[in-house]
Write a structure and sequence with these properties.
217 residues, mainly alpha, 6 helices
Length: 217
């Protein structure tokens, strides 16, 4: 095994992305339940509103925990791989910027403008991190002489960028509508954004899995 750090890191990133994928799916379910809650409230169905509301809170909490674990694991994985591949050093810097934006957004959560800007920065950093991770795996494939994975990485990079760009546009529209849970329209747009994210995750995971297997050889 030529790149021990990279092998360990990519494996952790792969596991982290699985957790984040599950988190995204759970969040979609929570958003659908939010829409049901709003509809039930409009129909004056108190029982339906309470049931959907409680279920939504539980699912959002579960999704947040999974996302947190996945985020920490991905960070550790990127640190591991950065010891063998420079593209992951750039990804690490972008992750740090995203974390700073998250902290600032949390501190100024009552300031809609600052919070929205921080959300956009986090979304952008997420896209860029993914791009540099794919670039890093492509570089590792070229170093190990695996032309097939190297070419797949280049092809998938274009697909990933397109899906994440569409997702980012959807997320910006959510912010324009006043937040993810502010209205039924905002909720529907948020679901579209998350579906796009899940598609991107699946494509991304396929490359991570191949990269993990390649580095394990």
């Amino acid at each position: 095994m030529k790149f021990q750090n990279a092998a360990t890191g990519v494996k952790r990133i792969f596991t982290a992305e699985i957790l984040k994928l599950i988190s995204a799916i759970v969040t979609i379910i929570a958003l659908v339940m939010t829409i049901v809650t709003v509809a039930a409230a409009s129909a004056n169905s108190q029982g339906g509103t309470i049931a959907a509301g409680v279920g939504t809170v539980v699912l959002i909490a579960a999704a947040a925990i999974l996302a947190l674990i996945g985020g920490i694991m991905a960070l550790v994985g990127i640190i591991n791989v950065s010891k063998d591949e420079s593209a992951f050093k750039t990804a690490l810097i972008l992750v740090i910027i995203s974390l700073i934006a998250a902290v600032v957004g949390g501190i100024f959560s009552r300031n809609t403008t600052v919070y929205s800007i921080c959300q956009i920065i986090q979304n952008l950093m997420s896209i860029f991190v993914t791009v540099f991770v794919i670039k890093g795996i492509t570089n590792l494939a070229e170093k190990t002489g695996n032309d097939e994975i190297a070419q797949q990485g280049k092809n998938l990079l274009t697909i990933i960028v397109v899906f994440y760009a569409l997702s980012l546009i959807a997320n910006i529209l959510v912010l324009v509508f006043g937040g993810m849970f502010a209205s039924v329209i905002g909720g529907v747009i948020a679901v579209v954004a998350l579906v796009l994210n899940i598609i991107a995750y699946i494509v991304y995971l396929s490359l991570l899995n191949k990269g993990k297997n390649m580095l394990a050889e």
